[in-house]
Amino acid sequence: MPPTTSRLTVVVAILSTLSWALWFGGIVALFLFVSVMFRESRPVAVDAAPMLFHAFERYQLLLAAFGLVCLVLWRVLAPSRAIMVAFTFMALAAVAAVLSTTLVTPRMEALRRQGQSGSPEFRQLHGRSMMFYTAEAAMLLLAGVALPSAIAQGCAPKPARPATPETVPDTAAA
What pTM was estimated for this model as a whole? Predict the structure, then answer.
């Protein structure tokens, strides 16, 4: 019997990797797009950047939840240290995303609506937001570094079970 890998394991590995790629790619794209907007047209960026961040926050939280569920399922199907490492880094990124979304963004948005985006409090919150987003991106990068090993360990064909030897009677015929 040839070595096998569960198809479900492969599907879950693909979904885990896809969720990581969409999340990591999204955060890199967000950094790039917002930086270019502020460089090219600050007035446009001041109005558009909060909308981009708001949309990204919902997107990343959905991807984080989906990706973490997939990684847990993958770990159950194919126990592997590398899968746990990828899970740990994605979970840390998710914590940063939740903290930024729930603690920092609402206060920044309130100040922005009050016309206080130049205030010291807003600048302090913006600095915290950047720290969370940078930490999140770093954790996602580390999760991405762990994923190839997770795939190698968690999707490697399992050796076939050896055939059980036939039972030999205790008494042999003479």
Answer: 0.85
